[in-house]
Amino acid sequence: MFDDHLRGIIPDINDQQLEQLREQDFANWFKEYVEKNEVEERIYQIAQGPGRTVQSYKGMPRRISSSRGRGRGRQDTMSQPMQSLRDEQNEDQSIGHEPLQLPVDTQVSPTPLQLGGQVAASSSSSVRTRGPNLGQPTPVNPTNRQMIRLRGLVFLDISVSRSITNDIKMHFTAPWKTWAEIPNKMKDELFGKFQGRYMWDETEEQNVRLAWDKLGKDRFRDILNRARNEMLVKHKKSDIAYLHNLGPNWMKAEVWNELVAYWSSPEWRKKSQSAKINRMTVKDGSITKHACGSIKIEIHEDRLTKKLGRPPNKIEVFRATHTKKGADGVFIDGKSQRVDEDYASAIVEKYGSNSESPPIFDMDKWIEVSGGFNKGRVYGFGSSAKSQTSGSSTSQSCTSAYPGSSSQPAMTQEEIQQLIDEKASRMRAEMMAEILDQVRKELKTTGGTQFATSSHPTTSDSTNP
């Protein structure tokens, strides 16, 4: 029935697409189908089952023992209870006993599909189901889409990241090395799926696509990193070159093998080693650490707002993300403790210990004591600190906007540059397509149809009379 429903909407759907949509949307479709009272009588019969009624009995027959031998005793034991049951059943029916109706448990244990509504596109073993990592399901009724919020260019709902991850895995049809290599048509399709799950305030419309693209870029990079590392561990290999035909179950073998060939090249290995060295570089006596995990600072700040019942100041956010869990006030490393102490001393020095109105947070002073910008990021707050500096000593006399309010922080230079690069890439691709199309048309009109399908003629073709 669900398959017929999909084929009616998408007549040219293939079996692979049908299977993906079935795993993705069936649970929600069935739920709404039941709620609309369109369930056939057959479903009710199946739900009740053949054992929906039983007869009540006054007692169970006794086991018959016999001293005549094991065989005879077993025969009596097997036959006598059945006869007793038949006798008591006839007796109960003759005196008008009503059948005892067993209650039907309508609450069904949630399945992985009901938990997430997404295909578990994971590179881990099929036996291990990571239900919590499934994304937001796509509702049949668009009005049931989940409302999401933004802070800057960060989605505050963690399911958004999971949904984008699953969508990328389900549509990984070519050996793309970076997010920029994915065709714009495919990105539009992925964003269409995102729109089918979520809705947002119209005041945030302009930034939603930018935030989605930014998160997609981060998740794409993380997906490939995880796939490489997990396959190396799973197959007990020490070199990526040995992972030929040993890819994750959500990626086609030919796509994976092309990526393995790229990762095995000397150029990529050199670049990877350089990045590894940079990550392990000791700065200020230790490698930079935090307790955020893969969750953005903005999401931690939103969670802290709900916990405190008010917007936290930046120092509270920093301490919440740089102290050990279960250890009250113990910082994650020496640098975080030093910066916290130096900032407190700098504020006292600047405003005095008896100041009646010190700023809630002075981002300029924080940048000064933490070592300044490093690749556009500020220690403890990432790139979000850029939009919170003003060059004055009282740059942060208030906290960021309360979640849900219409005001949003200004875009950072990094985010603006990302937008410019994205638009420039799209314009170049569109311009090149137009030029090639025009060249083909001109060649056809001049009789050069043999060149219409090739933008790189061979030497022999160009010299032949």
Automatic annotation (TrEMBL):
Biased composition (Low complexity): 383-401
Taxonomic placement: Eukaryota, Viridiplantae, Streptophyta, Embryophyta, Tracheophyta
Bias-annotated ranges (Polar residues): 402-412, 446-465
InterPro entries: EN-1/SPM (IPR039266), Probable_transposase_24 (IPR004252)
Record's protein name: Transposase, Ptta/En/Spm, plant
Naturally occurring in which organism (per UniProt): Hevea brasiliensis (Para rubber tree)
UniProt region (Disordered), positions on chain: 52-93, 122-143, 383-412, 440-465
One BP annotation, GO: transposition
One matching Pfam family: Transposase_24
Top-level division of the source organism's lineage: Eukaryota
